[in-house]
Specification:
globular, single chain, D-Maltodextrin-Binding Protein, domain 2, 12 strands
């Protein structure tokens, strides 16, 4: 049975010009986080590029959060999804693999990769006039938490708290169901600190409503080490003043990769239809979001991934001479984990 979702034919909403007759295109869905989120924009980019190219007619299916649609991708009910490396790695490995002492994701051993997208960059969000000036000032404050619909956000906050040597026990948790509700709690005064991806539409909305700003995580060598140890797959990146919405000074943020994921049950022509469209139209990706400006098609495949690639993706990258012996080793190691 499908989880809660909002069905949206993005191909219609964006006024796409289909490059091939509808009957000639394979039809598929791509799951995402809710409208207003960065992953929704990434999914919309994939939808438009593939549909315009005539290789795959994609419809974006927004869900409350990653944890609600990962099981649907695993079973093949939803063909594709835009997810992050940590979520899919935890769900693929199953309950015996834990980060922060927990792994609440449903086991999804059928998950596979099609391609990497740009990394997500995450940072704390506070009101612009708040007395919270550094990450250390978060101690004892009201911080949005739990996030049952967006379990990734629990790990985001766990990671940036860890950068400063803190844990969830050092703050007062304000339970919220999902990422957008976390920002709502901040705007409404029910929380002092929340978390969101850089340049998220929800952050821009909050900034227009009450004025908000992103807070820097601890990017000292010790802080960076604590981040990497707290959540495998996380790393830190600098962001200059004005490079993103609500960045009022030079800050440091949490970064981690985003994937277009699928199931090993997904037909080869769906996977190859997406990859062909993106590979041949990679220059069209950047305008969709500032986080995609530095992305190139060479980043679609990497040995630094948390789930194995779909067989059709492996063949595609081999044919385009970007699949390396190192990738073979990574693929076999990850497949062995899932057995």
């Amino acid at each position: 049975m499908r989880g809660p979702r909002v069905t949206m034919a993005v191909a219609m909403g964006l006024g796409l010009a289909v490059a091939a007759p509808a009957w000639a295109q394979k039809v598929a869905n791509i799951g995402s986080n809710p409208p207003g989120s960065v992953l929704y924009v990434f999914a919309s980019a994939m939808s438009k590029i593939a549909t315009d190219a005539g290789t795959l007619r994609l419809t974006v299916q927004p869900y409350a959060g990653t944890s609600t649609f990962l099981p649907l991708i695993d079973t093949g009910e939803v063909e594709l999804g835009v997810n992050n490396a940590v979520d899919v790695g935890l769900s693929y490995r199953g309950p015996n693999f834990k980060v922060g002492g927990r792994n609440p994701f449903q086991h999804t051993p059928n998950m596979r990769m099609t391609m990497r997208l740009a990394p997500l960059m995450i940072a704390p969000v506070v009101r612009r006039d708040a007395p919270i000036k550094t990450i250390q000032d978060v101690r004892g404050k009201r911080v949005t938490g739990e996030y049952p619909a967006n379990l990734a956000i629990w790990y985001n906050i766990f990671g940036w708290l860890a950068s400063a040597g803190m844990t969830w026990s050092d703050v007062k948790v304000v339970p919220v169901p999902g990422l957008n509700e976390g920002i709502d709690a901040l705007v409404q005064g029910r929380a002092d600190v929340s978390s969101y991806a850089m340049n998220g539409a929800k952050v821009r909305e909050a900034d227009a409503a009450v004025g908000v700003r992103h807070l820097s995580v601890d990017c000292s060598p010790e802080g960076q080490k604590r981040v990497r140890e707290a959540v495998p797959g996380y790393y830190t990146r600098p962001v200059k003043k004005g490079e993103a919405a609500a960045v009022l000074e030079d800050i440091c943020v949490i970064a981690y990769d985003t994937y277009v994921s699928t199931s090993h049950k997904t037909p080869d022509d769906v996977v190859q239809g997406l990859l062909k469209a993106v590979w041949e139209n990679s220059a069209k990706v950047a305008p969709f979001h500032p986080l995609l400006k530095q992305w190139t098609r060479e980043q679609m495949v990497s040995a630094e991934v948390t789930i194995p690639y779909h067989p059709a993706a492996v063949r595609f990258y081999q044919e385009h001479k970007v699949w390396t012996p190192e990738m073979d080793k990574t693929q076999q190691r990850l497949l062995a984990i899932g057995r």
